[in-house]
Amino acid sequence: MLQKFVYITGALDYLVGAATWGGALYDPQPGQFVALMTLGMFLMMAAACLVWASKDMENRAPVIFWQGLVRLTAVCSVLYGVQVGLSQQWEYALVGVTGCSPIELLQCKTTPGAQAA
Question: For residue 60, which phi and psi values (nearest 5 degrees)?
Fold first, then answer.
């Protein structure tokens, strides 16, 4: 089950990366274009890493762990940013796309054997 979860969340990163590129190309803004294009490529690279890591989770666990920290940062940034006016409410949808619960990540429930315990 966890293997499928890692694979699916990795595959979703392809869509988010492509959407980031689309937003940058649709409405190019000075000071944002390069950052959005680079972020889009980073997300696609992360997607490839997660899909690859899902095939041998025991040996590639560090990839999944570090990607989990990236997702935790994104979730916490949105939750904080919306409250103080640094983000917009639609960005709450990004929290759902990450598939990451900050509580589960902090409880180390992202490891392959954690669900059996």
Answer: -115, 20
Do residues 81 and 67 touch, judged by C-beta distance below 8 A?
no
In one-letter notation, the amino acid at residue 25 is L
d(C-alpha 108, C-alpha 101), whole Å: 11
Three-state secondary structure readout of the chain: CHHHHHHHHHHHHHHHHHHHHHHHHHCCCCCCHHHHHHHHHHHHHHHHHHHHHCCCCCCCHHHHHHHHHHHHHHHHHHHHHHHHCCCCHHHHHHHHHHCCCHHHHHCCCCCCCCCCC
Rounded to two decimals, the pTM is: 0.66
pLDDT tens, residue by residue, 84-106: 888 777 777 766 655 555 555 45
Pull the structure tokens for residue 1: 């089950």
CA separation for the pair 46, 70 (Å, rounded): 10
